[in-house]
Amino acid sequence: MERHLMDSQIKGVSTGTTILAVTFNGGVIIGSDSRASIGGYYVSSKTINKLIQVHDRIFCCIAGSLADAQAVTKAAKFQISFHSIQMESPPLVKAAASVLKELCYNNKEELQAGFITAGWDRKKGPQVYTVALGGMLLSQPFTIGGSGSTYIYGYADAKYKPDMSKEECLQFATNALALAMGRDNVSGGVAHLVVITEEGVEHIVIPGDKLPKFHDE
Amino acid sequence: MAAVYMSANRSENAFSTVDLVPEWAQEEVSTGTTIMAVEFDGGVVIGADSRTTTGAYIANRVTDKLTPIHDRIFCCRSGSAADTQAVADIVTYQLGFHSIELDEPPLVQTAANLFKQTCYRYREELMAGIIVAGWDKRRGGQVYTVPMGGMIVRQPVSVGGSGSSYIYGFMDSNYKPGMTKEECLHFCTQALALAMERDGSSGGVARLAAITEEGLERRVVLGNQLPKFSNA
């Protein structure tokens, strides 16, 4: 949809990208590739980290103009930690997603960035929220985004099941990223995955040559 | 210059017929679509959705996009409905003539190259993405893809049309060489169902055909019989 068009029209460095977030039984996995490109012709970074930690158990991943995304997440990180101090408790994932949404919606003319927010909180457990280009906020059991996501809609629809185990979910996310990176020329590099549970946060990096290979490779 | 993408397309009318004709009748007829073909040992399985659109209106919801070119050679059409019908008619004539001259059934590679010749020569005018598939005695089941622009390449499995973008991942992960005919039919049904669910320009019923030395077997999977994948 809009992401597909968005990435090819961005001036400057953009994350033509593949990002995803998937809930499983007890937590959520958020993942992305690591390529940043200029207009799809030059890879300006092979190892960029698109998974930004906005609070202890809340991450967000960015798609679109890198400059816009960095500015928005910096502002959001501040607002969320301020809110958390005021409330004297860890913020809700929905609150973090709302902060991003407000920033995106109120500045929709200038910005070209979309986000996926995922995390764990005490009230609702693991959650995934999408903040689309114009500032729409949507809660889903899993979501995919970025230019590379077009190629894995079929795979994700077919393979996702609710209440997976952590290992099944890791396999699902890794396969999805590998398939998208295999078809989208502006996604690539390494696969970054973050597993967020009540216990803590685990960061996994899978280099390109260790990604799953498919029949024609 | 010819379009490289195969997304659903809208063409603007040069003159305004705002009041004379409803909006949907002003748009070009397109088979924004999902088509695919898979080789197996002994033949090929081809599949397509059944939606033809003029802008937002579905002009035909039971289209047959699997067009016979010869007894054991079919083509799957995507892009402009008029362009693909015209090219298919041209190739059917050329191939029929060639086959009579040769006094034997034509090769799939010949049919594919005839498509390529027309699609490449008229690349600026045409908007046609075609998959040619069939069986012949020399090389068995074969799939050749002739996308917009007029390239030709043989592939064991190929998808095309606007809906194909959504199923590249599914195709890469689920295709295995050495599948049987039934496995190929199942794989195609699933892939088409997934694409039809996500692509607004694909839908209706799933049409499938299996082409082997023995002959042709056509199947239709109606909308309510398609596998469901929604997790709502």
TrEMBL record, chain A:
<comment type="similarity">
    <text>Belongs to the peptidase T1B family.</text>
</comment>
<dbReference type="Pfam" id="PF00227">
    <property type="entry name" value="Proteasome"/>
</dbReference>
<dbReference type="GO" id="GO:0004298">
    <property type="term" value="F:threonine-type endopeptidase activity"/>
</dbReference>
<dbReference type="GO" id="GO:0019774">
    <property type="term" value="C:proteasome core complex, beta-subunit complex"/>
</dbReference>
<keyword id="KW-0647">Proteasome</keyword>
<keyword id="KW-0645">Protease</keyword>
<comment type="subunit">
    <text>The 26S proteasome consists of a 20S proteasome core and two 19S regulatory subunits. The 20S proteasome core is composed of 28 subunits that are arranged in four stacked rings, resulting in a barrel-shaped structure. The two end rings are each formed by seven alpha subunits, and the two central rings are each formed by seven beta subunits. The catalytic chamber with the active sites is on the inside of the barrel.</text>
</comment>
<keyword id="KW-0865">Zymogen</keyword>
<keyword id="KW-0539">Nucleus</keyword>
<comment type="subunit">
    <text>Component of the proteasome complex.</text>
</comment>
<feature type="active site" description="Nucleophile">
    <location>
        <position position="17"/>
    </location>
</feature>
<dbReference type="InterPro" id="IPR000243">
    <property type="entry name" value="Pept_T1A_subB"/>
</dbReference>
<keyword id="KW-0963">Cytoplasm</keyword>
<keyword id="KW-0391">Immunity</keyword>
<dbReference type="GO" id="GO:0051603">
    <property type="term" value="P:proteolysis involved in protein catabolic process"/>
</dbReference>
<dbReference type="GO" id="GO:0002376">
    <property type="term" value="P:immune system process"/>
</dbReference>
<protein>
    <recommendedName>
        <fullName>Proteasome subunit beta</fullName>
    </recommendedName>
</protein>
<dbReference type="InterPro" id="IPR016050">
    <property type="entry name" value="Proteasome_bsu_CS"/>
</dbReference>
<keyword id="KW-0888">Threonine protease</keyword>
<dbReference type="GO" id="GO:0005634">
    <property type="term" value="C:nucleus"/>
</dbReference>
<keyword id="KW-0378">Hydrolase</keyword>
<dbReference type="InterPro" id="IPR023333">
    <property type="entry name" value="Proteasome_suB-type"/>
</dbReference>
From TrEMBL, chain B:
<keyword id="KW-0378">Hydrolase</keyword>
<dbReference type="GO" id="GO:0005839">
    <property type="term" value="C:proteasome core complex"/>
</dbReference>
<dbReference type="InterPro" id="IPR016050">
    <property type="entry name" value="Proteasome_bsu_CS"/>
</dbReference>
<dbReference type="GO" id="GO:0004298">
    <property type="term" value="F:threonine-type endopeptidase activity"/>
</dbReference>
<keyword id="KW-0645">Protease</keyword>
<comment type="similarity">
    <text>Belongs to the peptidase T1B family.</text>
</comment>
<dbReference type="InterPro" id="IPR023333">
    <property type="entry name" value="Proteasome_suB-type"/>
</dbReference>
<keyword id="KW-0647">Proteasome</keyword>
<comment type="function">
    <text>Component of the proteasome, a multicatalytic proteinase complex which is characterized by its ability to cleave peptides with Arg, Phe, Tyr, Leu, and Glu adjacent to the leaving group at neutral or slightly basic pH. The proteasome has an ATP-dependent proteolytic activity.</text>
</comment>
<keyword id="KW-0888">Threonine protease</keyword>
<feature type="active site" description="Nucleophile">
    <location>
        <position position="33"/>
    </location>
</feature>
<dbReference type="InterPro" id="IPR001353">
    <property type="entry name" value="Proteasome_sua/b"/>
</dbReference>
<dbReference type="GO" id="GO:0051603">
    <property type="term" value="P:proteolysis involved in protein catabolic process"/>
</dbReference>
<keyword id="KW-0391">Immunity</keyword>
<comment type="subunit">
    <text>The 26S proteasome consists of a 20S proteasome core and two 19S regulatory subunits. The 20S proteasome core is composed of 28 subunits that are arranged in four stacked rings, resulting in a barrel-shaped structure. The two end rings are each formed by seven alpha subunits, and the two central rings are each formed by seven beta subunits. The catalytic chamber with the active sites is on the inside of the barrel. Component of the immunoproteasome, where it displaces the equivalent housekeeping subunit PSMB6.</text>
</comment>
<protein>
    <recommendedName>
        <fullName>Proteasome subunit beta</fullName>
    </recommendedName>
</protein>
<keyword id="KW-0865">Zymogen</keyword>
<keyword id="KW-0539">Nucleus</keyword>
<dbReference type="GO" id="GO:0002376">
    <property type="term" value="P:immune system process"/>
</dbReference>
<comment type="subunit">
    <text>Component of the proteasome complex.</text>
</comment>
<keyword id="KW-0963">Cytoplasm</keyword>
<dbReference type="GO" id="GO:0005737">
    <property type="term" value="C:cytoplasm"/>
</dbReference>
